[in-house]
């Protein structure tokens, strides 16, 4: 046995020696594992246990023979994972803003910190610092309708209004968007809608920021539907894009064009370097005696930094800017800078400064796309295929198109699991759409927009804005055409984080190693994707407040308890279920018997029928009647607190129960359910009652 272990150890050492150039790439991965553990594990006892386990692994590695790469890798990995958990834990304690304890109606007076206009929704998001109200969080975000927006509201203004403040919204269903987590790290402790009238006690003390002025300028100058996209390309603000156009861009796989990231930063820096080189080369003395490339690279770096700051310094933009600066530095030193080490360095910087960004789709998708592109570009076979050679024009064009299609497919395959996990849908035709959209955006739209802004300094930009609008019309035509295809997207219901983590680690294993062992990563990727695609749609979805209930019908459709529910509630239900059809009213189902106050529904699940009882109104129901009906039901769902006399056979999901579990997804085929939050979750953005949930009779939640 000892001899076999020694042979395995020697084999691992030989493999790590072969992959020695790739080992530094795992430094940000190890740090990210610790950060992810803090978000996944529910309480401080488990966070401490994870840190202790990582330190124990590092200490245990000291027993391995000294000098080996395996020993150093385990020690470094354990220490980095522990450091990642402590890093995000420490930041959450020092910089986060606890949420409002409970909803409250207040007359608020505060100083405006920022105003984000959303023309497509005819409203603005106003960030306010309350004055003289210590019981409120330090920052509050309120929505203000355009019709109620008075003059003088801007940064530095003091305003007064009435509003009903709520804690930032947690995910309403398992796998849903967690705004509460994001708001905590952004310092926002409450949200609400400002009620008119809004009084301006002191008008804005400063002129609107350059980003806001540029946003308004572009919207005014671009004619047609593409104005919102033009403003997003210039400022990163997507608030003016119509909902139908934004959805078409997502379904067609072109949404990345709307988020300022590598494509935009690279195009800007390349354009600045090109122009500076050509302008400086007009001087013979400068061309012969000065390092023009170094000077142009410096100008491009300044332009990239300025563009990043102008567009809000979002994670993809920061990552792209850091990567571009490293590339320019490598070029200045005469080295090949576009490598995975550059990507790893950018990821490490972002994780150290913004560890909370790890769990967001922006970080995951931007870095996954870049890793896929660089890994493919480093592969010898791909390099040979796309290398320049002496051949005819049509063969060269065909080879370039094939290379673009291959890179698009690689990115699409890598991003599909991430999109399915976060958005429950993934584009399948994005590689085809991007063959047209990326050259159109990079080579036509962005240069035209830059020329229009430049000529606007003299008042001559109108022709360029008209050309920009026509190019954007073509971009939208491509987006809507691809999005209308039935093959445009693949849908999947919400998945567990375990399956998602399995897929991510498998993809990283395939992309970061170079020896034949990298293909072992395909096993967890294939297993995870099979589990996602084979997972059935939940039979019952219950929102966190108990008001909205969606049921899976016998024909595969979905029916909703409250047919007049708002668009947001309906969209959340549809997306979480992985359903691409319409929602019908539950009262129209033949197996439903409804009164103004109650609905009784009989559903087939597994090898039996399940009886559901749902409340529809706030009218008090006689306890004897309610007790009788509950006794005949397997599951009772209500947005109110039900009395103890209501005792269903399997689950009583009333307001008290849902306050501890959040929204529910129930699988009747296996008699199981998932909650949006754990009963023992101690993350600081969770506003929840204490105690274990009661009312579930089917086993452990």
Automatic annotation (TrEMBL):
It comes from the Bacteria. The keyword Magnesium does not apply. Keywords: Cell membrane, Membrane, Transmembrane, Transmembrane helix. InterPro entries: ComEC_N (IPR004477), Competence_DNA_uptake (IPR052159), DUF4131 (IPR025405). Residues 233-514 form the ComEC/Rec2-related protein domain. It is found in: Cell membrane. It is a multi-pass membrane protein. Its main location: membrane. One of its GO terms (cellular component) is plasma membrane. The chain crosses the membrane at residues 23-41, 47-64, 73-90, 257-280, 292-310, 316-333, 340-357, 401-423, 435-457, 489-512, 519-542. Residues 48-194 form the DUF4131 domain. The keyword Cell cycle does not apply. This is Competence protein ComEC.
